[in-house]
Amino acid sequence: MPENYATAEYHTKVSVDSEEGITRVISWLTWDPAGDWLLEYSLGQGTCPHNGIQYVVDESNGGAIVFDLPRADLSEAVLARFPADERESDVFPVNDDPRTFGKFFGHIAPKDPENHVNETLPIEIHYVFFH
Questions:
Q1: What sign has the CA pseudo-torsion 81, 85, 91, 92?
Q2: What is the pLDDT of residues 58-93, one digit of tens each?
Q3: pLDDT tens for each residue of 85-124
């Protein structure tokens, strides 16, 4: 965590290419909970929650956040942001644009940066796609 966290970008973004025919995504974030970091993890398509569509979000200081997200479980609010022809599909949308449906993102935001100035936190993020 940089000393100038109030003005610096310190979120971690991970992306994975979308594929045709994905019906379910499982993604998990892990870290060592001994440092008592409170992390927020969000999953969606695009590049991040601010440039894409966030599907789910959770926070924890316990060392793991796991999402098991079937396409059929997307909320009505999320579906309303899809193109009309994608709203009734049973698969996640896909295109060649990384800012929309060309990528899945994982976005990690430390929620208490003031408690971790000059500290680092190794993390692992994984994705499993079901077709």
A1: negative
A2: 999 999 999 999 999 999 999 999 999 999 999 999
A3: 999 999 999 999 999 999 999 999 999 999 999 999 999 9
Contact 90, 71 (CB under 8 A): yes
Sign of the dihedral defined by the CA atoms of residues 46, 51, 57, 63, in that order: positive
CATH number at residue 107: 2.60.120
Residue 2 falls within a domain, yes or no? no
Q: Is residue 125 part of a domain?
A: yes
For residue 73, what are the domain limits?
Answer: 12-130
8-57 pLDDT per residue, tens: 889 999 999 999 999 999 999 999 999 999 999 999 999 999 999 999 99
Question: Which residues of 36-100 form beta strands (DSSP E)?
Answer: 39-48, 51-60, 64-70
In a domain? residue 4: no
Number of separate domains in the chain: 1
User: In degrees to the nearest 10, what's the CA dihedral of 2, 5, 7, 10?
Assistant: 80
In this prediction the pTM is 0.92
CA angle 45, 46, 51 (to 5 degrees): 125
Identify whether 88 is part of a domain.
yes
